[in-house]
Amino acid sequence: MPEWLLVDGSSMFFRAFYAIPQTMRGPGGHLVNAVRGTLDTLARYVNDRKPRHVAFTTDEDWRPAWRVDLIQGYKEQRTGEPIPPALIPQVPIILEALTAVGVDVVGLADYEAEDIVATLAAKVKPPIEIASGDRDLFSQVRGRDIIVLYPQKGGPAEVDEAEVKKRYGIPGQAYSDFAILRGDPSDGLPGIPGIGDKTAAQYVTRYGSVRAMLDAGVFKGAHAEYLEAALKVVPPVRDLPIKVPKGRRDRYPDDPEKVEQLGKKYGIVNNLDRLVSALGALPALTKR
Q1: Are the CB atoms for 282 and 50 separated by under 8 Å?
Q2: What is the pLDDT of residue 287?
Q3: What is d(CA 288, CA 285) in angstroms, rounded to the nearest whole number?
């Protein structure tokens, strides 16, 4: 039973949008496939993992200017359609529904959900489970104290320290260094030419970190400049000025009237009920 379930909300509702048919509409004609999918997915996580606290994090800026200033190509390939047009109007409904139920939604201007997750993981006590399809958060894995629940067919994979080592040959905390070296097309990171997974793992194993490689003069010139910039861009920020949310309510839903209103308006009564039931079934908090 984890102390905290930290949800990468953007990852969850993107996956829900593509997993649920885009024909699901509420009584007023609103498209609600991502809304239903997100509520049901979160309910499953709560039922299966039984966390003592839950927080749902958001991208307040999916491509922060300060990251782009450092690496011009950062997530550039996604600028054509960063968010599917049919998903955009569903996001406020998702967040409104979660808030009414009593799930804390946490975000901060100019930062991505991965930064919020990393900061909260640094502030709260373990064990912590991170629900995300973003491999950048593998960098937060610490033994079994902090693991990532990585979505896949048949249910999420538990990515702990042993699993990161098995997949990449490195410790979890070195994942950002690994990604910086080999590059990541999905994030617009060029990497160092000629360095793939195996070579990146070898460098990390030998030197421990990109910073140590730079201090040792392993890379010079343009490659060193890229690495210096990437060290500021790639690792999720872990020291943002955000407060740890309550993560629990004495009762669910937090706002019954609002939940009833949203359920009827968008045709999501059953989805809300499943999430409320899952949260309400969690064991009562006791001092530890």
Answers
A1: yes
A2: 55
A3: 9
Q: How many domains would you assign to the chain?
A: 2
Residues 224 and 116 in one domain: no
CA–CA distance, 148 with 107 (Å, rounded to integer)? 19
Per residue in 249-265, pLDDT (tens digit) is 999 999 999 999 999 99
C-alpha torsion angle, residues 242, 135, 81, 267 (rounded to 10)? -70
Secondary structure class of 98 (helix, strand, coil): helix
Residues 25, 121: Cα–Cα separation, whole Å = 36
Kindly report, residue by residue over 213-262, the tens digit of the pLDDT: 999 999 999 999 999 999 999 999 999 999 999 999 999 999 999 999 99
CA distance 16 to 97: 15
Residue 137 maps to a domain: yes
Task: Tell me the C-alpha to C-alpha distance, in Å, between residue 146 and each of 22, 123, 130, 205.
Answer: 34, 12, 7, 21
Show the domain range for 258: 4-164+237-280
Extract long-range pairs of 217-222: CB within 8 Å, 24+ residues apart: 219/192
The H-or-E segment that residue 253 falls in is none
**Domain for residue 118, yes or no?**
yes
